[in-house]
């Protein structure tokens, strides 16, 4: 494995981190969009003021639980991605060390 291969692996690793960040941002944006959409739907529904207020109160009580669940799922996915990246980093480091050791051994033989 050459140094160019190692550089390419590093580049792929950085690209993967960027994709994970983009997915996280998309998920957060989707959650915000759903929340805003639900609130707009409740406020624009043809109901009496009392019914609308009750529905808003019920939705407001549910939001912390939903937000907590969303954050927990996001944290799990982030931890999984971190573990995969850490494993890949160790693999690349081992390959790099093996390559350097082989090059050093070849230079000693010469």
Automatic annotation (TrEMBL):
- What InterPro entries does the annotation carry? Desiccation-related_membrane (IPR052928), YtxH (IPR024623)
Q: Which Pfam families does the entry link to?
A: YtxH
User: What are the TM regions of this chain, as residue ranges?
Assistant: 22-45
Question: Which keywords does UniProt give here?
Answer: Coiled coil, Membrane, Transmembrane, Transmembrane helix
Superkingdom as given in the UniProt entry: Bacteria
The chain's coiled-coil residues are 68-98
Q: What is this protein called?
A: YtxH-like protein
Biological source species: Anaerospora hongkongensis
């Amino acid at each position: 494995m050459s140094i160019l291969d190692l550089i390419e692996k590093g580049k792929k690793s950085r690209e993967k981190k960027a994709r994970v960040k983009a997915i996280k941002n998309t998920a957060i944006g989707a959650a915000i969009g759903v929340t805003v959409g639900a609130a707009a739907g409740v406020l624009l529904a043809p109901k009496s003021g009392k019914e609308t207020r009750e529905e808003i109160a019920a939705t407001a009580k549910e939001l912390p639980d939903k937000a907590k669940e969303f954050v927990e799922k996001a944290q799990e996915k982030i931890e999984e991605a971190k573990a995969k990246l850490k494993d890949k980093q160790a693999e690349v480091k081992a390959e790099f060390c093996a390559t350097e050791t082989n090059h050093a051994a070849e230079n000693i033989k010469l």
